[in-house]
Design goal:
- The protein is of the alpha+beta class.
- It folds into 2 domains: 6-69 and 144-316, Bira Bifunctional Protein, Domain 2 (BirA Bifunctional Protein, domain 2), CATH 3.30.930.10; 342-434, Rossmann fold (3-Layer(aba) Sandwich), CATH 3.40.50.800.
- Helix content is 31%, strand content 29%.
- The radius of gyration is 25 Å and the shape is globular.
- The chain binds adenosine-5'-triphosphate.
- Residues 147, 179, 181, 190-191, 194, 196, 263-266, 305-307, 309-310 line the site of adenosine-5'-triphosphate.
Length: 436
């Protein structure tokens, strides 16, 4: 059973070193988190799994890494300076602040219950503003990017010229974004600093709807392939009143969080809005000349935009399991091997010097290909439980028989099955079980 309570994951993340509250020694910093030894590995795996599917396994998508600080003109042209706002209301009784569109009842304060005590809604711009250079004032204001997408649009012509791609093709990016969220919360679901994984896919205008349907299905399948049960996912079409003014259709991929359905990713038809805006503001030509048809056109864009940190929370929640084994509760993270922080744990049965050289040697071979843990403390049963709880798919145990028979035990996390494998075959046996 997946986690039914967010605290199960929050506690595990703290206890095992996935995610810590930021600046905890100072009492923390609201809704900011630090990714610890295991969390940083897992987050990297989430991003790598995305890049593998979206870039490596396709020949029509290239990757970029644009700067976080850039010209404010980007945000002028994209509409973020004028429109990237949330409706903000304050409760005049308890002074708490809410997003009006998140209130179950727009007249009742969810904190203190006051009725009709809200202020008028104000448009609150979500972009973080800072100052570039030593002189404050006009011209020095810059913004931390609130999405990675604009990096793809402003580099459209550069990539077109240098990559030899032509529509349909995509530009992908993974990286940090910042939003001054009014109500961050639910652990790493909504934070002010987070990571996104976005693709802008440029297509001939007439093909927009077909590619939109393609990307909705492809992206949904990505989560299923990485182990989220299909019944915890849904593809929800936006209602007309939810659509951005330029969007010709948007669907959200939602996950069944313990508090209800929540967005993991939005797939949007952005039409030619962004390229046209940047062309108009920059005076540069942002279009494509199709030599085959002798036609010049501004491509339409289909954008699958996912959150890496938010998605990591979903993967953890879906993978969490507790089961009773021999009257004891075993906590297991049934993470897909690609997402698991460690793929293998090498465990010498005892700390005795006699086992160490062989165990170290096996570990050295495996770490050439995989992120591995090496653990020689505590009883073997407790070490297995620890690896189960952090999602390590395989343990390789080196015991005293290993010195005689030249074999080790491979234990599988999910079934707890154990098999004896000759040392010379360990790497192949691990690869076969992991699937890579
Ligand atoms: P929401 O409605 O939850 O605020 P959004 O529709 O504004 O999200 P997008 O602008 O479509 O989000 O961003 C794409 C993805 O980036 C989201 O699906 C989500 O996974 C991630 N994301 C957006 N805002 C945050 C945040 N504050 N914290 C963590 N992830 C976020």
């Amino acid at each position: 059973m997946p986690a039914s309570d967010l605290d199960q994951i929050v506690n595990l993340c703290k206890r095992r070193g996935f995610v810590y509250p930021s600046a905890e020694i100072y009492g923390g910093f609201r809704s900011s988190y630090d990714f610890g030894p295991l969390g940083s590995l897992m987050l990297r795996n989430v991003k790598e799994a995305w890049i593998r599917t979206m870039v490596q396994q396709r020949d029509d998508v290239v990757l970029i890494d644009a700067s976080i600080l850039s010209s404010p003109q980007v945000w002028e042209a994209s509409g973020h300076l004028a429109n990237f706002t949330d409706p903000l209301v304050d409760c005049t009784t308890c002074k708490q602040r809410f997003r009006e569109d998140h209130l179950a009842d727009p007249t009742v304060c969810p904190n203190c219950g006051a009725v009709g005590a809200f202020t008028e809604a104000r448009a609150f711009n979500l972009m973080f503003k800072t100052t570039a250079g030593p002189v404050e004032g006009a011209g020095a204001d810059v913004y931390l990017r609130p999405e990675t997408a604009q990096g793809m649009f402003v580099n459209f012509a550069n990539v077109l010229q240098t990559s030899r791609k032509k529509p349909p093709f995509g530009i992908a990016q993974v990286g940090k974004s910042f939003r001054n969220e009014i109500t961050p919360g639910n652990f790493i679901f909504r934070t002010r600093e987070f990571e996104q994984m976005e693709l802008e896919f440029f297509v001939p205008p007439a093909d927009g709807p077909t590619w939109y349907r393609y990307w909705c299905q492809a992206r949904l399948q990505w989560y299923i392939d990485l182990g989220i049960p299909a019944d915890m996912l849904t593809l929800r079409d936006h209602d007309a009143d939810e659509l951005s003014h330029y969007s010709a259709g948007t669907a959200d991929i939602e996950f069944k969080f313990p508090w209800g359905w929540g967005e993991l990713e939005g797939v949007a038809q952005r039409t030619d809005y962004d390229l046209k805006q940047h062309a108009a503001h920059s005076g540069q030509r942002l279009d494509y000349f199709d030599q085959a048809t002798n036609e010049r056109y501004v491509p339409y864009v289909v954008e699958p935009a996912a959150g890496a940190t938010r998605t990591m929370a979903a993967f953890l929640l879906a993978a969490y399991d507790e089961e009773v084994v021999n009257d004891e509760t075993r906590t297991v993270l049934r993470l897909h091997p690609r997402l698991a922080p460690y793929k293998v744990a090498v465990l010498p049965l005892s700390k005795k010097d006699t086992l160490t050289p062989l165990a170290r040697q096996i570990s050295a071979t495996l770490t050439e290909r995989y992120m591995c843990d090496y653990d020689e403390t505590q009883a073997i049963g407790r070490r297995y439980r620890r690896q189960d709880e952090i999602g390590t798919p395989l343990c390789v145990t080196v015991d005293f028989d290993s010195l005689e028979d030249g074999a080790v035990t491979i234990r599988e996390r999910d079934s707890m099955a154990q098999v004896r494998v000759p040392i010379a075959e360990v790497q192949a046996a691990v690869a076969e079980r992991l699937g890579f």
